[in-house]
UniProtKB/TrEMBL annotation:
One of its GO terms (biological process) is DNA-templated transcription. The keyword Transferase applies. Residues 23-229 form the DNA-directed RNA polymerase RpoA/D/Rpb3-type domain. This is DNA-directed RNA polymerase subunit alpha. The lineage of its organism: Bacteria, Pseudomonadati, Campylobacterota, Epsilonproteobacteria, Campylobacterales. The keyword Ligase does not apply.
Amino acid sequence: MRKIKIAPFMPSEVEVNEISSNNAEIIAYPFESGYAVTLAHPLRRLILGSSIGYAPISVKIEGAAHEFDNIRGMHEDVAVFIINLKNIRFKIKDESDRVEVKYSFTGHKEVSAQDLNNDQIEVVNGDLPLATLNEDAELNFTVVISKGIGYVPSEDLRDEVSPEAIALDAFFTPVKKANYRIDPVLVEDNPNFEKIVFDIETDGQLGPVEAFTNALEVMNKQLSVFNGVLDVNISTAPLKRSSDDGELKPFMATVDSLGLSARSFNSLDRAGIKYLGELVLMSENEIKNIKNLGKKSLDEINDCLVEHGYGSDYELPDQTRVNLVKKIEQQKV
C-alpha cells in the first residue's frame, strides 16, 4: 500500500570510480522515479557545454601569408600543419586567460606536440605529429593559446588576432564523452527507485571529476537567479517593510547574481564578499587590493559597478552608508 509522503525521497549515496586519469564513473542513488533523468540531463549538457578548456586561436608562420601557402623545407602544407596544431591539447601553466608562445625549429627534425612544451604551456597529448622538416628547413611560428568554453569559429576570432596571423577554429571543450544511464535500484523492497551512472572522459586538460564538479557549480550559479524568490514573504499577514529596507534592496544583490566570470567571483568569494553593497562601500583602491584579483577581474568588477549605476563618481549618502553597513552585518551573522 502506498504511503502518504510530504516530501520527495532524498538520495544519500554517491560513488566515484576512477577508471583512468581521464575517465571516471560518478554514481548517485536512490532517486524516486523521474527525478534521476530530471537531474542527469541538464548536468550532462553543462558538463559538455560549460567545461573550461584551452585551444590555439591563431598562428603566425614566418614566410606564410595564408593557410594555403607552403614553407620551404617543410613536408606538410600550411593547411596540414594547422590541422595538426588544432589537434594538440594545451594547458596554460599559470592562471592567464591567454598566452602568446613563439617557436623556432631548424634542420632535419620530426616536430611533435611534445616539442611545444615550455615554461608557459603544457601539452597533454605530446605524441601527436606536427611537422616534418628537412636539412635546410627553418620553421618559425607564434601561437596564441586562449582559455574558453565550447566552440568558436575562426570567423568570430578575426577581430581578436593580429592582421598577420591566421585565425583558427577554436574547440575549447576538454570533455570527450559525457554519458549517463539510469538503472533501477531497490529500496526497502520497492523497485521503483533509480540510480544515475555518469561516464565522463576528458582529453587531459582537466580531470573527469573536476569537469563534473565544475558543472555542478555552474548549475548552482544559474539557479541562484531564483534566490530572490525565497525572500518574498508569502504570509497572509500584512507585509511591513521599513523605508530603509526598500532603499537598501538594490545593494543586497548577491555577488553570484551579477554575471561575473568564475575568476572574479571566486576572488570575491574567497575574500568573503557576498553582496553588491560591499563593493559599493569599498574604494577603488580597496577593491584593487583584494587578494588574487587581477587587472582583468578588477576591470570587470568596475564595469559591473558602472552598469548598476555605482561608478567611481557615485557618492553614497552618509545615512544610507550607515544603514547599509548594519544591514550587511545582520545578513552575515
